[in-house]
Amino acid sequence: VAPTTPVCEVPSSAMTGTVVQMSCKETEGSPPSEYQWYKNGVALLEKTGTGSVRAANVTYTMNKKSGTLLFNTVTKNDTGEYFCEASNGIGLPQKCSVKRMQV
C-alpha cells in the first residue's frame, strides 16, 4: 500500500540552545514507510551517534524509521523551512506541507 501524506510536527519557533524534536508520521503505508527530512529543500543526512557528528557541525539526529528529527541544541543556523517525505517503495513518496522554524 502506498503511503498517505504524512503529518509533520515542526515548532514555529525555538530558543537557541534548547532541545527540539520534530516528528513525521503516516499510518497507511504497507510496508511501513521510511521518512526523510528536508531543510530548505535539501535532504538532511542521516546521522546516528555523536562521534563524527560534531566534526561535521551537525547538531541533529534523524531516525528514518520513526520519522523523528532531534536537535540536541538548536542554533540560529537551524532556522529554515522543514518538511518530510514518507516512502515505502510503493507508489510515489508523499510530502507534508513545508513548515518554518525560527530559532
From TrEMBL:
Residues 3-103 form the Ig-like domain. It comes from the Eukaryota. Belongs to the immunoglobulin superfamily. It comes from Irena cyanogastra (Philippine fairy-bluebird). One of its GO terms (biological process) is leukocyte cell-cell adhesion. This is JAM2 protein. PROSITE patterns: IG_LIKE (PS50835). It holds the Pfam family Ig_3. Keywords: Cell junction, Cell membrane, Disulfide bond, Immunoglobulin domain, Membrane, Signal, Tight junction, Transmembrane, Transmembrane helix. It is found in: Cell junction, Tight junction; Cell membrane. Signal peptide: none annotated. It is a single-pass type I membrane protein. GO terms for cellular component: bicellular tight junction; cell surface; plasma membrane; protein complex involved in cell adhesion.
